[in-house]
């Protein structure tokens, strides 16, 4: 329920449109009741052959009320829908603002398909919260109170029947259907989450599934999941229609009661016969406004579940950032020195300590290579520098500042990064390079392509989703070109040339070192060739540094690095 209050708070930003929608809704409802009441009275009165002007007044009132009703209904629709779309957009923005700082932690717990279902489906379903849950009861209450007061002026008994009908159609019957709806809604949402998870996973892994000949099995899972979702959707709709039909039935029963009691009151002389048709018409019309209440519980429950699922992610204590308040938003425009002091890191939900008590100092402008066995924590160390993950113990300093007090964006602004996996967007080479800066000219972009031996690429060349149309080596070179274009004086390169042939690798490294001459550079590499150019080589094993020094020092020491180098040379 607390999540729903958060949504209401966001909704109230649009209070002007909400108030206008409520006023228009009330005018439309009350003029509809007035229109039918006047028609009923006109029919009865005509039978008594009244003076001509009475008929003119009544007919004009009917016409006027008809016009007012149409105008007010239009106003209600216009303002309520305008409010709804603005509320949805506010909601999306608020949700994204809270979700983005939780990336990548959020993926440790939630699968991308499930997140997509929440971001798209759950936010979308909240359009019904305002349109069918929040404001219709306010309009309904206002219309009913006015109508019952008007009716009680003619007959208290009929006013009491209307009150009973009101309680039945707006509270008792919807409450009964709500009980069923609670269970069904939870199931619909879960099945939808599972279905989109299956679909996204299948799309991502389509090629592998084909190669491993597992596509049919996964397809069958998907079809079963789709069936399960459809079954729950059917149950949901049956409950919705049953609630509407039952409510409609009750409103007719109430109108029959009004007619029967009214007729009785006419025979006893308590009610003038000329008002009977008017009261029956009032009863038939006023319950029209109660019709939305039949679907109220469905949408109320749906909204509660949707907000709960949305806020469950962004308020999940397991994935909250544990960072301290940032006080530094801008870093100096120079090569930084990095210092790690007794840092310790464990991935969320993992029992292994990945980085153990690591202490390291990287002077400004130095060129450092990190080598070591696969899984020894090299990439994890780069992620710690980038504040994509945060150490549980120890400190990481950027010059004299603890990175915990530096805003993430300030660090990203000053780093040039090539990760093992780099994402490319659907578009052109130009658009993907301009990720490094929108104002980069074509000449600058072409120069970057030249430095990574991709001068034969045209900037308008298309890039498909996930750069499917580029080879592994081309993707790596494009990522390096992007790093060339980006501002910053700290290079973080995680096996940037692992898919390249030695000749291309050599040329690119030459250009890289030239460009990074005045910068700090950290290179994670499995290949040990060319490391003699580095100032320091750090050898990692099981989350700690087991050796460090210059190339000559390590070779002289004949330790772990020396063994690795000898092994590599024997394989060449
Ligand atoms: N997101 C994650 N969640 C949990 N564990 C992870 C995650 N990423 C990496 N690990 C684990 O952390 C350990 C260190 O991984 P890391 O990627 O830092 O190693 P690495 O030295 O860069 O390996 P490689 O040379 O193969 O790239 C590995 O055992 C890996 O399984």
UniProtKB/TrEMBL annotation:
Record has Iron-sulfur as a keyword: no
A biological-process GO annotation: cell redox homeostasis
Domain ABC transmembrane type-1: 19-302
Transmembrane segments: 20-43, 49-68, 129-150, 156-179, 246-267, 273-299
Keyword Nucleotide-binding: yes
Keywords carried by this UniProt record: ATP-binding, Membrane, Nucleotide-binding, Transmembrane, Transmembrane helix
Cellular compartment(s): Cell membrane
First-listed, main subcellular location of the protein, grouped into a coarse class: membrane
Entry membrane topology: Multi-pass membrane protein
Domain ABC transporter: residue ranges: 338-567
Family annotation (InterPro entries): AAA+_ATPase (IPR003593), ABC1_TM_dom (IPR011527), ABC1_TM_sf (IPR036640), ABC_CydC/D (IPR014223), ABC_transporter-like_ATP-bd (IPR003439), ABC_transporter-like_CS (IPR017871), P-loop_NTPase (IPR027417), Type_1_exporter (IPR039421)
GO cellular component, one term: plasma membrane
Superkingdom of the source species: Bacteria
NCBIfam families: CydC
Protein name, UniProt field: Thiol reductant ABC exporter subunit CydC
Annotated source species: Niallia taxi
Lineage: Bacteria, Bacillati, Bacillota, Bacilli, Bacillales
